[in-house]
Every structure is written in structure tokens, then in C-alpha cells.
Design brief:
Belongs to the DNA repair enzymes AP/ExoA family. This protein is of the alpha+beta class. About 25% of the residues lie in helices and about 20% in strands. The strands form four sheets. Strands 5, 6, 7, 8, 9, 12 and 15 form a seven-stranded mixed sheet that branches. The radius of gyration is 28 Å and the shape is globular. About 35% of the residues are buried. It binds zinc ion. Zinc ion binds next to loops.
Length: about 500
């Protein structure tokens, strides 16, 4: 942590800084860099991340053992490379307990109460809900860390940080949890667990990707207000944020409580459609706190300037309250996983390219191989068919590849035919490297972006041109004009 006071003299030791970020795959990140640079200026006490898309054996030391932080992961045991959440807790915020899952199905019923390692306050699970509880708890959707905080009067209280990745709203038949009842049950377990904690006198922070936008202003493409408010998952969030008559428990949306009217505060965009460019997105990431803890809320923010995922980080800061020091790190911390214990750096590690570099090298090699294959076919064709004269391209292929063509062509200097073929091959080669002429879009007159159809079907692999701008609200002149044109279309 940085200095104990800031420029205006606020005591930073008496501040709690929570950050939540759906990182959409942890493999491309070095967590030390994330915590010291990307979110480093926010003085992070606890970073809750979602969609690590890792299984336990994929976790690397750079993600599991970060200086000044202990981290607590939950991986999906149902599906590999799917969901996954983790809490990174600064040494000033070391938890006393950490637990996976929301329904406690791995602890119930035998250890329902007072197991020293369990966070407790589990929901009642009906017979018909037990399969969903088990599935949800093993799906890498929730991790809870429990901390001790000290209030201004010196009294100590338990604070539970529930990091959650709620099931998606989208109907996707290939998604095994595309089941309305599973989602409703998951939401209800979360509500009941969080309320039970508050009822037993504990503070609760729920942060993560709830996969639902709350109000009309939280979603760009909401067109039908009636349909919008009647969505049952949205009604669940409404229910969580309204006062429970029986217990008086109520949760507060930290961002909206500080910035009730701030428009365009989206946390997630469709990056495939470049929608972040025009801020055409949705606010589906939240830091919610119980109303008693909310009296310490100083501010909450959406950090749209921090890139790296299709979501941006969000944060909430609390004043006049501090974590109680705890030097005993729970054994469930990732640094205690067998694969990281007694780990000596191997010489190989120093020379091993990272997965990202390896993937990039493979992609480049594949592209070179593909172009060589096309050239081979093209060279053969040039022997058999008299081609129309090729226009001289401006762009040249890589120097080395041209040399390899010249060398591989038999050239005894006796035949003009061979020389001609040679020249044609080189031109054909050059053409292969020349990108197709870029059209301009009709709406803006700007050079288009080249895309490739990735969806399986008759057009898979086919290239097309689109307006270079990202999608946006209909009528937004700064957004895409929807220009579309196939590359190599017969009409052109
Ligand atoms: Zn355009």
C-alpha cells in the first residue's frame, strides 16, 4: 500500500478499496502487473476477478503467488476453461477464512454449523434444489473470503466478500446451464446466503458480474421498457436491492447510490462489434453492500479507461473502517497448492516463451504455410495456363520468400520461357501478399475493416469489408453505417 495519508490528509489506513473485474481469461495477464500497474493507483485491498477460464492445473505461479497478496480461487469442475473466480487480498486485508461456492453444498448438511474452516450462514436447500446447488458450487462461480474489520468505535465485525459470476441471461442451447430454474436457484442461494450473513450481524460485500443490467439507463440496446422491467432476472436484482420486510436487510448498489444519474456508465461491451468505441454497452458488474456497511461508503466508480477485457473494472472505497491485521493465511490460498510449494525456478523457465508468444508464433507460421501452399498451386497453374498479364503490385512479399522462389526455380539461363514463368510467379506471390483493395464505407467515406466469417456454415473463412466504426445506437452518426461488402464478390 502507498502512503498512509494522501494529499488532502485523508488517512488511507482507514480506507478499504474494493475492485471487481471480469477479466475474460486470465492467461493473457500477469497478475503482478495488473495489481501494481493496471489497478495499482487504486490502492487495492481486495480485487475480485471473474471468468479466469482456468482449471487448477493451468494456473501459473505468476497468477497464484503474487507479492503482497494472497489469492483464493474457485475453478469450474464441470467444464474446462470455463468461468472461474478469484479474490486477491492485500496483506493488510488477509482473510481468516476462504470458501468456494454459494450454497455450501460441499459443507452441508454434516458441517452446517460452526465448522472452523467454513464461512457458514448457508441457505436452506430443498430436495429438488440439491442438484443445482451442487452444480453451481462446482462451476467456479463464487468464492467468499471472510475478514475481520474494526469500526470507528473499536468494535470488531466479520466482513464477507462474496465474489460472484452469475449465470448468463443469454439463451444458448450449447450451454449446459441454459436452464431457467438453475439460474433462479443460483440467484436465490445468493440472496439467502447474503441475507443470512447480515442477519447474523456480519457485513457483506457482493461484487462481480451479475450478468443483468438493472435499469433502462444501464443498457444501451433496451428498446421495450415494459419488457425490460418485467424480466424475471432483473426482478431478482430489484428484490435483492429492496428491503426485506421480515429482517430489514437491504443491499445497496454502491455506484448508483453515489452517481444516481450518471449516464453511459457501462461496464461491458460487445468487443467483436467494436461497441466499446461508441460506449454502446451494458452495466452488469456491481459492488453491492448491505445497508449497514454502506454508511462507510466514500465513492464508487466505473473505470472505462482500463482495457484488457470486454469488461472494465469497477471500484468502491470505504472510509473510517479498517481491516484487522491477520498474519495467518488460510490454507486454501493458491500459494499453498502442491504445484507451487517448494518450487525452484528451473533453467528452462527462463527460456520458455510464454503461452501468448508461443500462440502468436504458431499463428504466424500457419499463415506463412498457408500462403506458401497457395503459391505452390499458383506456380503450377502458371505452367499450365497462359495467364492474363498481371498488373504490377506496389507491395512486395518478404525479401526472404522472394529469394526462396528464385532459388527454387530451375534457371539455366537458356530459356526465356522459364524467365517469364519466374517473373509471373514472383508477381503472383506479390499479389498474394497484397491486401485486396480497401473500399470506403458509404456512410463515412472511411477505409473499411477486413473481417473473416468464423461461424461454421457455407461462408466460413470468407472475408468481407465492414464500416471501420463500432456499432452504436441507431442514428448515431459516429457509429457504424452498417456498410458491408464481400471480398471477391462476383459483382465487384
Ligand atoms: Zn461507415
Amino acid at each position: 500500500m502507498a502512503a498512509t495519508t494522501d494529499q488532502i490528509g485523508r488517512d488511507l489506513d482507514d480506507e478499504l478499496h474494493f475492485i471487481s473485474w471480469n477479466m475474460n481469461g486470465l492467461r493473457t495477464f500477469n497478475m503482478s502487473e495488473v495489481l501494481t500497474k493496471r489497478v495499482g493507483t487504486m490502492n487495492c485491498s481486495i480485487l475480485a476477478i471473474q471468468e479466469t477460464k482456468l482449471t487448477r492445473n493451468m494456473l501459473e505461479a505468476s497468477q497464484a503467488c503474487v507479492d503482497d497478496y494472497s489469492s483464493y480461487f474457485s475453478f469450474s469442475k464441470n467444464r474446462s476453461g470455463y468461468s472461474g473466480v478469484a479474490n486477491y487480498c492485500h496483506t493488510t486485508a488477509t482473510p481468516i477464512r476462504a470458501e468456494e461456492g454459494i450454497a455450501g453444498s460441499n459443507f452441508q448438511p454434516a458441517y452446517k454449523v460452526d465448522l472452523p474452516i467454513a464461512v457458514g450462514n448457508y441457505p436452506d436447500i430443498g430436495e429438488d434444489q440439491s442438484a443445482d446447488a451442487k452444480y453451481g458450487d462446482n462451476d467456479g462461480r463464487t468464492v467468499i473470503t471472510q475478514h475481520v474489520v474494526i469500526e470507528p468505535d473499536g468494535s470488531e465485525k466479520l466482513l464477507n466478500v462474496i465474489n460472484v459470476y452469475c449465470p448468463r441471461l443469454r439463451d444458448d442451447p450449447s450451454d449446459p446451464v441454459n436452464n431457467r430454474q438453475f439460474k433462479l436457484n443460483f440467484h436465490n442461494f445468493l440472496t439467502e446466503r447474503a441475507r443470512n450473513m447480515v442477519k447474523s450481524g456480519q457485513f457483506v460485500v457482493i461484487m462481480g458480474d451479475l450478468n443483468v443490467s438493472h435499469k433502462l439507463e444501464d443498457q444501451s440496446d433496451a428498446t421495450d421498457p415494459k419488457q425490460f422491467v418485467h424480466h424475471e432476472f432483473r426482478q431478482w436484482l430489484d428484490h435483492l436491492l429492496s428491503k426485506d420486510e421480515e429482517s430489514g436487510v437491504c443491499f445497496v448498489d454502491t455506484f448508483r447510490s453515489k452517481h444516481p444519474d450518471r449516464p453511459g456508465s457501462f461496464t461491458c461491451w460487445n468487443t467483436r462489434l467494436n461497441a466499446r468505441q461508441n460506449n454502446y454497452g451494458a452495466r452488469i458488474d456491481y459492488i453491492l453492500v448491505d445497508s449497514w456497511f454502506s454508511k462507510y461508503l466514500r465513492d464508487a466508480q466505473v473505470h472505462q479507461d482500463i482495457m484488457g477485457s470486454d469488461h472494465c473494472p469497477i471500484s468502491a472505497t470505504f472510509h473510517s473502517i479498517r481491516f484487522k491485521a491477520n498474519t495467518f493465511i488460510p490454507r486454501t490460498a493458491s500459494k499453498f497448492y502442491a504445484q507451487f510449494c517448494h518450487r525452484q525456478p528451473k533453467l528452462n523457465d527462463l527460456f520458455k516463451p510464454s503461452d501468448v508468444q508461443a500462440a502468436r508464433t504458431t499463428a504466424i507460421q500457419n499463415e506463412i504455410d498457408r500462403k506458401k501452399r497457395i503459391l505452390k498451386q499458383s506456380s503450377l497453374a502458371s505452367f499450365l495456363v497462359k495467364k492474363p498479364k498481371l498488373e504490377e503490385p506496389n507491395l512486395t512479399g518478404p525479401e526472404n520468400d522472394q529469394n526462396s522462389i528464385t532459388k527454387s526455380t530451375p534457371n539455366d539461363g537458356s530459356s526465356g520461357f522459364i524467365k517469364e514463368v519466374n517473373a509471373e510467379s514472383v508477381s503472383a506471390w506479390r499479389l498474394l501478399f497484397k491486401p485486396p483493395d480497401t473500399p470506403t464505407c458509404t456512410g463515412h467515406g472511411e477505409k473499411c475493416s477486413l473481417r473473416t466469417v468464423s461461424k461454421e456454415g457455407v461462408n466460413v473463412g470468407r472475408q468481407f469489408w465492414v464500416c471501420p466504426r463500432g456499432v452504436g445506437k441507431p442514428g448515431d452518426k459516429n457509429a457504424s453505417c452498417n456498410f458491408f461488402k464481400w471480398v471477391n464478390s462476383k459483382a465487384s
